[in-house]
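LAB NOTEBOOK - FOLDING QUEUE
OPERATOR: T.R.
BATCH SIZE: 2
PURPOSE: Compare the predicted C-alpha cell outputs for two unrelated chains run back to back under identical settings.
PRIORITY: normal
REVIEWER: second-year student, initials M.K.

ITEM 1
FIELD SEQUENCE / FIELD STRUCTURE:
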Amino acid sequence: MSKFIFQGSSPISEKDFKSHLGSLCQLENIGVLLGAGASAGCGGMTMKGVWLDAISSSTSIVNDLLYFNLITQENITNQDVNVEQLLDQVTQYLSVYKKMAPLNDDSALEFRPVTRLQKILLCLYQSVTKAALLVERESFGNENLGSQEQFKYHRELLEKLISNRQPGQAAPMLFTTNYDLSLEWAAEEIGIQLVNGFSGLHTRTFQPQNFDLSFRNVNAKGEARFGHYHAYLHKLHGSLSWVQEHDSDIKEIPSALAKSRYIDPLLNGEPVYDKQFLIYPGANKYHHTIGFVYGEMFRRFSEFLSKPQTAIFVNGYGFGDYHINRIILGALLNPSLHIVIFYPDLDTISTDTAKLNEAQKCIKKLKSLSLNQITIVGGDYKAYFNSFVKYIPKPVLFPRDTSTQDLVAAINDLVQSGNQI
C-alpha cells in the first residue's frame, strides 16, 4: 500500500488510485478546484512567497507592522505570517485611523498612522499582483503566452478534461481562487473556448446566464453533435483582467489594457487599488463575495458539488479560505460526490491538534471522516500540479502521443506547404 495516498483514512496503492481516477473521469460531472500552488510552478507565488516578496521590497514594512502590533517577532522569525488576515487587519486599522485623524495633526505626513498604513497596503497589494503575473512584467499582455513551456501542464489539463467527456456529458467545470490568467492563456493556445460568465464584443460584462450556454458543432450528426469544445471557468476571487471603477459593473478587459491602465500604475506606486480592479485576498473577502458577480460564482460552485455523480479534483489549494472549506464540507452530504485532494504537506501534519493552523485542521478533519468518497494524496512533490495532471488518464481512444496542439501544428504545416487537405 502507498504511504501517501489515502481513501477515507486507509492507505491505497498507487495502482488502485490511478484506476479510481479513471473511473471518476467517466462520471457525469467533473471539475477541478485550483489554488495558488497550481500556479507556483509556472511563475506564481504561494502566500508565504508573497510575504517574503513584500518584506524584501520594503525596508520599513516590518517595523511598521510591529509598530501597529499587527505581527509579532515570532511571526517574523518563523515566517508565519498569514497575508490574508494581515490585509484584512490593515484595512480595518486604516478605516479606524481615518476617522480618528485630527485635522490639525502637526506630525510629518510620512509618520502619520494613515500614511504608514497606506504604505503597508500598497506594498502587500504590489506583491500579490506580482505573484499573479506569472510572466515578466514587460511581456504581460503579449500574444500567445499560452504557448510557453511553463504552461505545458495547464494545456495538458484542459486537453485531458475535455477529451475524457463522453457524448451527452457536461463540459468540465474549472474553479480557481487565483487571479492569474494561466487557464485563459492555455485555453487560447489549444483552441478551447472558456465560458467565464462574461460576454460582449467591445464591452464584456458579466451575465450569469452565460454559464447555462454551451458550444456545439451544428454540422455534426447524432451523438457527435454533443462533443465538447469548451469548459466553464469560475474565478472565485476575481481576476487581473477584471475591472470595476466607481461602483460600476465589473468588466473583463484584455490583459494588455489591464497592464497599461491598472497593473503598471500600481507596481509604480500609485494607489489604484482603491478602484477595486480585483478582490485582493483577505479574511473579509467573504464580505466581498456577496456582491453580484462573486455571489454567482460561489452559488455555481456549491450547485456543482450538489449534482449527482460528480467528481472534483483539488490541487494547489491550501484550505486557508473558511468560506470555501464550508462549502466543501457541506457538499459531503451528497452521497455521489467524490473529492480527490492533492495536499503536498499531508505527511507533516502534527497529531497534536493544538499545533495545527485552521487549514491543517480542515485537512485532518476530512481525513478522519473515513469516507470513501474522499481521497487525499500527499507525498510532497507527488501532489504538485504537474504530478496531478500526469495522474489524470487519457481516454482509450485518445492517441497517447498526440495532443490538440500537435494536430493544430500539423494542419498549419500542411497549409503553409501549399498541400490540400
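ITEM 2
FIELD SEQUENCE / FIELD STRUCTURE:
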Amino acid sequence: MYVGIDVGTSLVKAAAFDAAGRQRAVAARRVGLALHGGIVEQDMEEVYAAVVAVLAELTARVPEPVELAGLTGQGDGVWLVDAEGRPVRPAASWMDGRAHALLGRWLADGTFEAVFRRTGSAMFPGCPGPLLAWLDRHEPASLDAAAAAVYCKDMVFRRLTGAPAATDVSDASMPFLDPRTRAYDDRVVELLGLAHRRGLLAPVSDPIATAGARGEGLPPGTRIANGPYDLPACALGAGVTEPGDGLLIVGTCLAALVATAGLDLDGEPAGLHISTDRPGHWLRAMPAMVGTAALDWVLGTTGVAHEEVDGLLAGTPPGAHGVRVLPYFAPSGERAPFVEPRLRAELTGVSLESTRGDLVRATCEGIGYAARHCLDAAGLTGSLAVCGGGTRSPAWTRLLADVLGRPLRVVEGEVGARGAVLAAAERYGVALDVAAWTEPTAVVEPDPDRAAYYTEGYAEHLARLGAARERAARAGSPAAPRPVPGAGATPPKVLRPERSTGC
C-alpha cells in the first residue's frame, strides 16, 4: 500500500493506492476556518489531529503494510511553530486578507514589481511575505516566540516524524525563492522589511525531505516524503510534466498550471513560477483566489443543494437569461492572472424573472471565464487535464469544456495525494508506472456551437472585468481588517463546509 496525505483548506484526506495506482480507499476529516473581518485562520492542533485520525482510519481499513507515504497540503499562509514544532498562534490562511493595505502600498511604491522581477511570483495578501510583514508590525510577540515560519505540510511533517523544520522548493517559491538558484533571495527579504526575521524562514530541502514516522497515525518507521505542496502535487498526479501541457484544478481555489522550461520575469507581474523537483522546469501558475467557494456561497445563499446543480445547469440555457457573475468573492481580492486586492464579486442582469438556475449557471460560467483567463495567461499550448471537487459535476465539466473550447482530460480521485506518492516514490527510488498512475478517467469534448457562443461571452467577460478593475482602483484601499479580538469580544465565525470541494 502507498499512502498519500493531502492536508486541504477545509478537508484533510488520506488515500491508499496499490502498486498499479488504483485508489483503494480514502479517509477524510473536515477542519474549520475562523473568519473575522477579513482575517482567516486555522487551528493547527485541529489540523494535525485530523491528519492522525485519517491515517489511523485508513491503515485500519486496508490490511496491506504501508510501503511509503507522501505528504502534500495547502500552500501559502503563515504557520508559526516553536522549536518543538508546536503552534505559536493559529495559522494565518492563504485566504487571509489582513495584509491587503500593506500590499497596496507595495503595489504603489514599486516593491511588488521589484519582488516579481527577482522571483517570478506575484505576492497577494495571504502569502508569507505580506503576512509576516503585517505580523512584524502588529503582532511582533508571535514572531519573537516562533522558531520557524513554515507551511501547512511542513508543520505536519515535523510532527509526524520529529524531523527538523524544513520546506521544499515548491512552497518556498512564494515569495522568497530565486527560481534560478533554488535558494532564498536575501534581497527580497530586505525589500519586504524582514531582514531581521530572516532566521524564521525554514531551510529549503532540495530534493524534498524524507524521514521515518514516529508512530502517530502510521506505523513507526514508515517512510514519508514531504512535498511538494498541493498545486504541483496535483500536476504530478495528473501527469502534467511536459512543457505546454496544463492542469485546471476546480477546487476551493481555481488553479491553472502550465508546465514550462522557461522563466518569464519580464511579463506582467501576476501569478507565480513554482519550482519543481526537476531543476530547469517550473509550473507557470495562475491560482485564482476563489473557485468552487464562489459556487458554494451562491448555493448557500439561494438554498440550493449540491445535488441539484446538474439539474439546474441542464434546465438553463447558455448565457443564463442575461444573468452575469464576476466571481471574485474572496475578501482579499484577486491574485491571478492579475493582482487587485480591492476587487469584489459582481452580479448583474438579475430581474424578478431570474431563477435559481440562472444564478447557478451564471456563477459556473463566470468561474469558467476566470479559468480561461488564467490558462491563457499561463501560456497553455498543449493538452489540458482537470481535477478537483468541481469536476464531480458532469454538467459543470461539460460547461467548462464548452467555455474553454478544448477537450478536458478528467482525472478523478485524490489527485494531490496521488502526486504526493509519486514524488515520494521518486525520492526513495521506488519504481512505479507513472503513465498508469496518471491515466485520465474520461475525456470531455466541447460542443462546437456552445464553444463559439462562449468565445463571444469570454470577450464580454474581459470587458466587464476591466471596468470592475477600474472601479476598484478608483475606490482606493479599504480599511485594513482588525486583529482577531481577545477575551470578551465576539468570537470569530468558524466555517465547516457541508461538503468540501477544496483543492
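REVIEWER COMMENT (ITEM 2): The radius of gyration is 21 Å.
FOLLOW-UP: none requested
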